[in-house]
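Co-fold these.
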Amino acid sequence: MSNRGNLDRNRFLAYHREMLRIRALEETALEGLKQGLVLGAIHPSIGQEAIAAGVAGQLRRDDILLSTHRGHGHTLAKGADPEAMMRELFGRQGGNCGGKGGSMHIADFSVGMLGANGVVGANIVIATGAAHAIRLHGDDRIVACFFGDGAINRGPFLEGLNWAAAFDLPVLFICEDNGFAATTRSADLTAGPGPAARAASFGMDAESIDGNDITIVAETAESLIDRVRRNRKPAFLHARTYRLTGHTGADPATYRPATEVEQAWQNDPIARSRALLVAAGVETEVFDTMERAVAAEMKQVFEAARNAPWPDPAEGLTDVLDARAPEVA
Amino acid sequence: MAEMTYAAAGAAALSETMEADRTVWALGEDLGRGGVFGQYAGLEARFGAERIVSTPISEAAIMGVGVGAAMTGTRPVVEMRFADFALCATDELINQAAKARFMFGGQTRVPLTVRMPVGMWRSSAAQHSQSLEALYTHIPGLVVMMPATPADNHAMLKAAILSDDPVVYLEHKNLWPLSGEVPDDAAPYRIGTAGVARQGSDLTIVTWSATLHDILAAAGRAAQAGVADIEVLDLRTLWPWDKACVLQSVRRTGRLLIAHEAVVVGGFGAEVAATVAEELHSDLKAPVRRIGAPKLPIGYAPTLENEIRLGPDRLDAAIARMMS
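Predicted complex below.
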C-alpha cells in the first residue's frame, strides 16, 4: 500500500496532530461528564481517530460531511472550532447550536458539517439528498457520510445506497466498523459477508481496510474521494476499528473481556501513527511540542466552556417556524 | 381567470414556481409519468427528468433526500403518493425535517414541501384512505396545510414551496377532478389564514379539505329549511391555525361545530374545540361539538366505507342538534 520508507512526514504529522486533538477533545469531554458539566450522553470515538483524521484530511472545506451520534472526531477534523463544540456539550451560549443540540446534534454548517444524528443510519439518506442537490447545482463538491456497523442493518442504508448508485451521486459512504452495535457484538446479528460486500452489491467501488492505520486510511480515502469527485459516482469505505471506551461515556462496557480491550490498546491508532513517524525519523521533541500545544488548546477550551453563560431561556422559542397565524385581537 | 381542476391547479403552482426558481424540483414515484393521479402531468416534458425526478419505491429515501437537498440550497417538493405511505418516512419527516432548524441552532432551514394525498376515495380500504393531519399538527416544527378548492391548491402550494419551513401539504384524492376558477392575479396565500367560505349568523362550522364541500351543501339545506344561517370557515392551514378568525366568528354566532373526515378522537377538531371552550366559554349558546369518523379502520365495501363517511344525514342531524 504505502511506501512507508518515504512517508510524507509533514502530511502525516498533520494527521497525527488531528488525531491527538480528537483524543484530547474527547478526554476533556469525559472529564466534563465526570464533573457534571457535560449534561447528556456522549459517545466517545476514542480508538477510532484515524478514520476521522484520515478521511476528513482528504476533503475540501466546501465538501459536505454528515456524522453520527459518535461524531466529535468527524466534526473537529472537518474544521469546527473545538471551543464552540465544548460549549455545545456543556449546553452553553456560543455552542455550535446555541445549546439546542448537544453532542448528538453537533453541526457546523460553516465548514460543511451538516450534523451529527441521534438516529442510527438516518444520516445516510440525508447525505444522499445533499449529494443530489450538488448534482442539481452542477458543481464538483462531494459528500462524506459516516456511520457505524450497526447502521447497515437499517432500511435507510439500503434505500440511500441504492439511490446514490441509481442517480450517480458523489458520496463517499464510510462504515466505521468498531464491532459493536451499541452494546451488542454486531457480528452476532449481521448476516452475510459484511458491509463492503453489501455496498459492492449496488455496483459501487468498495474497499475494506484496517481503519487503525492512518496511512492506509488516508491513502485509500484519497483514492476513493478522487474517484467520487471525478466520476460523480458513490464509493464505499469499510474501515475496521475498535471502540476503546464504552458505548457512552457512562458505559463501563463490562460485556467484553478486559483482555480484549487490553489487546485493542496495543492497536491504538495514535500509538501506531507515532511509531510510523518515529521510523520515518521524527524526533521525540516534535511529539512533545505537539502534545503540549494540543493539551493547552483543550485546557483553554474546557475553561472557556465552563465559564460560558447558559442560553437565555427565550432562545428556546426561536428557530422553530417562520409561519405565523394572524394575531388574536 | 382560468377554469381548472384541483389536480391541474397543483401542477400549475409547481410549474410556475419551477419556472421562477431553478432550485425548485420534485421527486417521487412515477412523477415522470404524471404521478399516480396525474397531478404532475406534462411536467417532465417541460422541465426534464433532472427536475421532475422519478424515484425508486423508497419512501425513507424520498423524504430523507428531500431533507438533505433542502439543507443544501434547493427547494424540494416531495411526493408521497398516498399519505398512508408517508408513515414509512416518519423518522425523516418528524425527527429530521421538523427538528433540523432548531436542533442545529438555526444554522439551517428546511424548505421542504411534502405532498401527501389523503382521504377516502372509491373503495381504497384501510391503507390508502386515511386522513392523518392530526399526527403532523402535534409535531413542533411542521406547517400543515389542506387546500379544499382549485384556487386554494394553486395559491397554497405556491406559498408552501416558497416557504422556508417544512410543510406537510395534504391534498384530498376526491378533489382531483373538482373544477373551479383559478384567478391569474390572486394575492399570494398567507400561510396560517382561514377563509370564510359562507357567511352566517347562527352557527359557525369549522372544517377543511374535502369536507368543506359537504358542509357547504349542508349549510344550503339548513338555510332552505330555515334551521340555521350557518357561517362556514375553511381552516386551510391547520398549523399554525387561524384562531383569530375562528374566535371572531364564534363570538358572533355563539355556536361552534367542527367537522372533519378524520377520526374524531384526538383529531385536530379537539384542539379547535378546546381553544374555543377556553377562550369563549361565556359567549357560547350551546356546547362546542365535533363530528368526524368513528375510531375504526376504513372498510373496503361501500356499505362499510359509508359507515365512516360524514353523509348528509349525519351532518343535518348534527346541525339540528346544535340549534336545538
